[in-house]
Amino acid sequence: MSEREMNLGLFLQPVHRSEKPWAIALREDREAVLLADRLGLCEVWIGEHFSTRAEQIPSPLMFLATLIQETSSIRFGTGVINLPFHDPVIVAAEVAQFDQLSGGRVMFGIGPGGLMSDVELFGNKEMPERYRIALESLDLILKLWQEDAPLHWDGEHFGRALERRVWLNHGVGQFARPLQQPHPPIAMAMVGPGGRTAETIAERDMIPISANFVPIENVAAQWRDYALAREQAGKVADRHVWRVCRNILITQTDEEAAELLLDPDGVIAHYFRYIRGVRRIEEFQSLQTEALPVINEFLEVPAALRDCAIVGSADTVLARLVDLVDQLGPFGTLVMVGHDWDDSGLSQRSMQCLAENIMPQLKQYVASLGPARWLGL
After folding, report:
1. Residue 286's CB: how many other CB atoms inside 10 A?
2. Half-sphere exposure of 268 toward its Cβ, with a 13 Å CA cutoff?
3. CA quadruple 94, 95, 100, 102: dihedral, nearest 10
4. Per 3-state DSSP, what percentage of the chain is helix, strand, and coil (rounded to 5)?
5. Greatest CA separation found in the chain?
6. How far is CA 136 from the centre of its chain?
7. In the chain, where are the structural domains located?
8. I want to staple 45 with a disulfide (CB 3.0 to 4.6 A). Which of 11, 100, 266, 270 is the partner?
9. What is the bridge-based pairing of β-strands 43-46 and 243-250?
């Protein structure tokens, strides 16, 4: 792929209808990744959740391992491994093993845990503490990837040691190392309007990923704060590493899109009702059995459809993506969000249209902006 070309990726949280049998949901997710690989998408990100039937992949690495031999070039991202819920020694070993098995195709997405039911399940720690745990876990993982025993780690949240039972000549005390050196690319998502998360990503040389369920003004603020932190650290803010996620669905006509968006239980409305609902789950428990339009209004789903979803005919979607680039400037990878499949084949046709028809035109538009726009000039 070109060094300064916009690429297309896929993010599968995934969000399915809760009544869909798990085996069918997993099969559809695998088929989505295989389709993405055939269409030439550069990467796929898979989420991790433990306490929901909607987002039904508790182990992204296990899921992605089933796809290594059936894909040719697509890179595999964990989107994300929630480090406060895991032992860092196990995460380090499993990611390293996956990187070796996949021929160096893994991208290590990390996070503090955002699904509140998972947070409660794993001890109900507040976000600032989960954030500190995640960063300490990452530091220990990097140490394990770079050094052999003797190991002594006495941190705020983790204590690990291997000092007495070491036999390096026979491999005892040597830790699992990834194929990519010094380590696989590390990524973290940004949800709020910039701030400390963007600064941390910049300072630690991570891949910045802008979430799909926030308005464009948040996304613009995320890059602004990331780029400022890079500048203050004497580092280049390379727009090509930036991933921007969006909910994109291409219909045959704009009329079909309008009808879909008006459906209170359409695939896009269902997605944003779920995403907004799980983030505010304690606020609307008394409304959970109300009619869907009532729940949608409370959770501001219509605003999400307006601000975060790009739905329409191919011409309309292309125009809105061009407008997205005009607002944000160029970025390295547009990451489309996978939606629950239905019998109509809409999601599959949408992915194919985006990859084969719209992206070539969008790439041509980005190229016409010239190299100076990549530098933010």
Report:
1. 7
2. 29
3. 110
4. 45, 15, 35
5. 70
6. 21
7. 7-249+311-318+329-374
8. 11
9. unpaired
Alpha helices (runs of H) in the chain, residue ranges in sequence order: 22-38, 60-65, 88-101, 116-121, 127-146, 196-203, 216-232, 254-262, 267-279, 292-298, 301-308, 314-328, 346-353, 359-368, 371-374
Cα three-residue angle 124-127-131, rounded to 5 degrees: 115
| Residue 106 phi, psi (nearest 5) | -90, 145
Angle formed at CA 105 by CA 51 and CA 4, multiple of 5 degrees: 110
Tokens at residue 115, please? 């699904």
Q: Are β-strands 151-154 and 159-162 bridged in parallel, bridged antiparallel, or unpaired?
A: antiparallel
Query: Tokens 């997605």 sit at which residue?
Result: 271
CA distance 327 to 268: 23
C-alpha to C-alpha distance for 345 and 347, rounded to whole angstroms: 6
How far apart are alpha carbons 118 and 15 in whole angstroms? 15
Please state the pTM of the whole predicted model.
0.96
Tell me the pLDDT of the chain averaged across its residues: 96
pLDDT over 50 at 377, yes or no: no
Distances, alpha carbon 127 to alpha carbons 53, 78, 156, in Å: 23, 20, 16
Q: What percent of the chain has pLDDT over 70?
A: 99
Q: What is the CA radius of gyration of the chain?
A: 21
Query: Are residues 12 and 44 in contact, defined by beta-carbon separation less than 8 angstroms?
Result: yes
Which positions ≥6 away from 52 have C-beta within 8 Å? 18, 115, 117, 118, 278
63-109 confidence digits (pLDDT tens): 999 999 999 999 999 999 999 999 999 999 999 999 999 999 999 99
CATH architecture entry for 7-249+311-318+329-374? Alpha-Beta Barrel (3.20)
- pLDDT tens per residue, range 181-194: 999 999 999 999 98
Closest CA to 106 of 70, 74, 141, 142: 74
Nearest to 80 by CA among 42, 118, 33: 118
Tokens of 334: 């547009």
Alpha-carbon gap, residue 345 to 365, rounded angstroms: 29
Helix (H, G, I), strand (E, B) or coil at 96: helix
Q: Which 3 state secondary structure label does DSSP give 209?
A: strand
